[in-house]
Specification:
Length: about 300
């Protein structure tokens, strides 16, 4: 594809802003198949995934409206019917956010699917900022009191609220259909971003993320000969990252490195605290035995 242009408007906004990307006048003798928007995630000015993209949306229309996560560089990929592509870096945009915007993104049910990545990344950013505040004083003389200080770390209520949001978002992803290769690319991006903060993954989130990752992995294995190498690598990397996050989320409570989430304890009817935590521990061990994670071995062979 050639002779076209891509622009974005406005240049400033929040995670609630609808940005418009205009990619017009592109020409190709074989026809334009679709236009995809990718982002690279940043944190505090440092690239987290320096060589990895996440798919934000894909469309056959030349004008695309979408909400954007914070800290991203944007790139548009224009593809013809034979898979040849042209890539255009968009002008940087400034996107601001804060925790007060979580509710507005989550409660917009009519547009919740397109809000999954911006909302998940907003939750991740809040979590990363909290970790950064703690990590600057690793030898604090009274670290236990520092950890309890709500100005430095999530309180339990906030942790469980964010975990509940992730659980509901993962249920939505689980019900999304797989009809095109772009669906696989988008959903693999969604899961890897949603599962990034591993201490906010309930048992139900972990199971649904595992099942969906397996579904994506088997789809990828079945159609690997019809996909370009770059697309296969893109999907496989996101699945493997999700699987790694799932492993960490399952084993964290067993290794006493993570707070047990309230939603996991509610799975049991015991009233005694000892029985409650013991049953949760045993259930978590059972989950480890059940999750051989077949998708990881299938996907790794494609890299």
């Amino acid at each position: 594809p050639r002779d076209g242009f891509c622009s974005i408007d406005p240049k400033h906004g929040t995670v609630l802003t609808l940005f418009t990307i205009n990619c017009s006048n592109w020409f190709d003798e074989d026809g334009i198949k679709d236009i995809s928007v990718y982002g690279k995630v940043f944190s505090s000015g440092r690239k987290i995934y320096s060589q990895r993209r996440m798919l934000l949306t894909s469309s056959t229309n030349s004008i695309i409206s979408l909400r954007l996560p914070t800290n991203v560089d944007l790139l548009v990929q224009i593809r013809d019917t034979f898979g040849c592509i042209t890539e255009v870096d968009l002008t940087p945009v400034t996107i601001t956010s804060n925790s007060s915007l979580i509710g507005a993104l989550f409660e917009e049910k009519s547009n919740i699917e397109s809000n999954i990545i911006p909302l998940s990344e907003l939750l991740n950013e809040i979590s990363r900022n909290t970790v950064d505040e703690i990590s600057v004083t690793p030898f604090h003389p009274d670290l236990s009191n520092l950890m309890k200080n709500q100005s430095h770390v999530f309180n339990i209520t906030t942790l469980n609220q964010h975990a509940n949001i992730r659980e509901e978002l993962m249920m939505i992803i689980s019900n999304l259909s797989l009809t095109t290769f772009n669906d696989v690319k988008l959903q693999s991006s969604m899961i890897s971003i949603l599962t990034e903060t591993t201490n906010q993954l309930t048992r139900k989130t972990l199971i649904n993320a595992l099942n969906k990752s397996s579904q994506l992995s088997f789809f990828l294995q079945s159609y690997k000969n019809k996909l370009a190498y770059e697309d296969t690598h893109f999907i496989a990397m996101h699945i493997l990252e999700s699987v790694t996050n799932i492993h960490t989320g399952i084993n964290g409570p067993l290794q006493q490195r993570m707070q047990v989430l309230q939603f996991d304890l509610e799975d049991f009817s015991f009233t005694g605290e000892h029985d409650l935590h013991h049953s949760n521990f045993e259930y978590q061990k059972q989950l480890v035995r059940q999750t051989a994670l077949p998708c990881s071995s299938h996907t790794r062979t494609l890299l």
